[in-house]
Amino acid sequence: MDAFLLQLLNGLDKGGAYALIALGLTLGFGTLGVVNFAHGALFMLGAFIAVLVNRLLRLETVTIDPDQLTPWGTPAEIHTPLVQAWLGDFGAVLLQYSVPLSLLVAVPIMLLFGVAMERGLIRFFYRRPHADQILVTFGLAIVLQEVIKHYFGANPIPVSAPPALSGSANVGEWLGLGPGVYYPWWRLVYLSFSIVMVGLVIAFLQFTTWGMVVRAGMQDRQTVGFLGINIQRRFTIVFGIAAMVAGMAGAMYTPIVPPDYHLGMDFLVLSFVVVVVGGMGSVAGAVLAGFLLGVLQSFASMNEVKDLLPGIDQVVIYLVAVVILLVRPRGLMGQRGIMED
Amino acid sequence: MDNAVLHIADVNKSFGGLHALSDIDLQVMEGTTHAIIGPNGAGKSTLLNICIGRLAPDSGAVVFNGEVITGKQPYEINQLGVARVFQTPEIFPDLTLLQNVMIPAFARRDGAFRLNGWQMASHQAEIMGQAEHWLEDVGLIGLRNRFAASLSRGDKRRLELAMGLVQHPRLLLLDEPTAGMSRHDTNATIDLLKKIKARGMTKVIIEHDMHVVFSLADRITVLAQGMIIADGRPDEVRGNPVVQEAYLGGTNP
Amino acid sequence: MQMTTLRQEVLFMAIFTAAVLTMPFWLEPLGASYPDLLQKFAIYGIFAIGFNILFGLTGYLSFGHAAFLGMGSYAAVWSFKLLTMNVIPAVIFAVVLSGIFAAAIGYVSLRRSGIYFSILTLAFAQMSYNLAYSVFTPITNGETGLQLSLRDPRILDRTLDEAAGIPFPEFFGTEMNGYAGFYFCAVLLIICFFISMRIFHSPFGMTLRAIKSNQSRMGYTGFNTRPYTLAAFVISGMYAGLAGALLAVTDPLAGAERMQWTASGEVVLMTILGGAGTLVGPVIGAGVIKYFENIFSAYHEARLHEIFSFMPEPLQNFFVTITAPFVGEGWFLTLGLIFMLIVTFLPGGLMEGARRLGGLVVRRKSQQEPDKLATAGVGAQDHG
Question: What is the ipTM for the molecules in this complex?
Answer without folding.
Answer: 0.89
